[in-house]
Design goal:
This protein is an alpha/beta fold. Helix content is about 45%, strand content about 15%. Strands 2-10-9-8-7-3-4 form a 7-stranded mixed sheet, with helices on both faces. The chain is globular and about 60 Å long. The structure holds (2S)-2-hydroxybutanedioic acid. Its EC number is 2.6.1.-.
């Protein structure tokens, strides 16, 4: 039964980490995966997380099963973070939130749920999008199409193309939108462009699925989450996946959530009952620790304040790194314009490097995604010169 199975290709993002881990060069640099490293090249353990863990250790608790939908305190805190405690959808109990295994887990729950209740829909993702979006929705059984998004000539959004694509989608199509910090391009819509997108989605009768994996890495927690609230206010059926992997530096704890907005409290209760079946038949119920940590931080005012400060510091360091990267490239690769990197938002830069140039960087033990996506958050004051010299060489 197994003899004819072929070798699967490496994952386009996590496969790079595998190659990086296998590289014996002590000066290797991983600009592939979307992980925030501090200026010493370390994944930070946030103080708010350590303090919450200390609080949890002081109240040792047995590790019983969580409810299928996750820790109630976590689901409540996340829902209020995503939609606002005083929003109509929360007040009217029209939103449901279930704990999920990171943002990926939340997307998969949403995809499986939609496949059960809107099986004929097709899915539309941005061109380009996070590599796993296509694979994930296809594995749930959907046909996945692209909509126009990135314009390589301007390094920005091809907004006319995007809007035309939205307007041409069939009613009931599922459109995956990046709420902020577009992955991989770092090119986000303006507030006025979002107005037009929301209008097009509502008018065309599409099902928006907002993916928010980088809240707080763009302009701020509230600013980055604003589009979710604007969509929720329209009253259309809405799905939102969010992740705390990056914003809490809790990658390996797999903490995320799926929220769904229904048209009434009664409909929401029915949706939740069905979503619980999706969870139960996949992994039964989520793990305890990460959810408790995030719920504790979000519900404890001093820790929440600390989290907001620590997240702001990560955001500020990335912005400063963008500036330093552009400045150094200007010196070391004159004739190549990288100014656009300053306009990009979030952890990534869609650098414009070709697949061949990325392969040449790899020969120097610098790892990036084949599409030219580099993780700005993996650069620091110690490795920036090495990265810039290597890029100047391959250019
Ligand atoms: C990324 O895009 O690098 C991150 O979202 C990590 C992942 O799972 O791909």
């Amino acid at each position: 039964v197994f003899s004819a199975i072929e070798m699967a290709p490496r994952d386009p993002i996590l496969g790079i980490t595998e190659a990086f881990n296998a590289d014996t060069n002590p000066n290797k640099i991983n600009l592939g995966v979307g992980v925030y490293y501090d200026d010493n090249g370390k994944v930070p353990l946030l103080s708010c997380v350590q303090k919450a863990e200390n609080m949890l250790i002081e109240q040792p608790a047995p590790r019983t099963y969580l409810p299928i939908e996750g820790l109630a305190a976590y689901d409540k805190a996340v829902q209020e973070l995503v939609f606002g405690a005083d929003s109509a959808v929360v007040q009217e109990k029209r939103a449901i939130t279930v704990q999920a295994l990171g943002g990926t887990g939340a997307l998969k729950l949403g995809a499986d749920f939609l496949k059960r209740f809107s099986p004929a829909s097709e899915v539309y993702i941005s061109d380009p999008s996070w590599e796993n979006h296509r694979a994930l929705f296809e594995s749930a059984g959907f046909k996945v199409n692209n909509y126009a998004y990135y314009d390589p000539a301007t390094h920005g959004v091809n907004f006319a193309g995007m809007l035309a694509a939205l307007k041409a989608m069939p009613r009931g199509a599922i459109v995956v939108l990046h709420a902020c910090c577009h992955n991989p391009t770092g090119a986000d819509l303006t507030s006025q462009q979002w107005d037009q997108v929301i209008d097009a989605v509502v008018t065309a009768g599409l099902i928006p699925f907002l993916d928010m994996a980088y809240q707080g890495f763009g302009a701020g927690i509230a600013e980055d989450g604003a589009v979710v609230r604007r969509f929720a206010a329209t009253g259309v059926p809405l799905l939102v996946s969010n992740s705390f992997s990056k914003s809490f530096s809790l990658y390996g704890e797999r903490v995320g959530a799926l929220s769904v907005v229904a048209s009434s409290a009664d409909e929401a209760a029915r949706l939740l009952s069905q979503l619980k079946r999706v969870v139960r038949t996949n992994y039964s119920n989520p793990p305890v620790h990460g959810g408790k940590v995030v719920a504790t931080v979000l519900a404890t005012p001093e820790l929440r304040q600390l989290w907001e400060e620590e997240l702001a510091a990560m955001r500020v360091r990335i912005k400063a790194t963008r500036d330093a990267f552009v400045q150094k490239l200007k010196e070391k690769a004159p004739g190549h314009d990288f100014e656009f990197v300053r306009q990009q938002v979030g952890m990534f830069s869609y650098s414009g490097l070709t697949k061949e140039q990325v392969a040449k960087l790899r020969e120097q033990s610098i790892y990036a995604v084949d599409t030219g996506r580099i993780c700005v958050a993996a650069m620091n004051s110690k490795n920036l010169d090495i990265v810039v010299d290597a890029i100047a060489k391959v250019l």
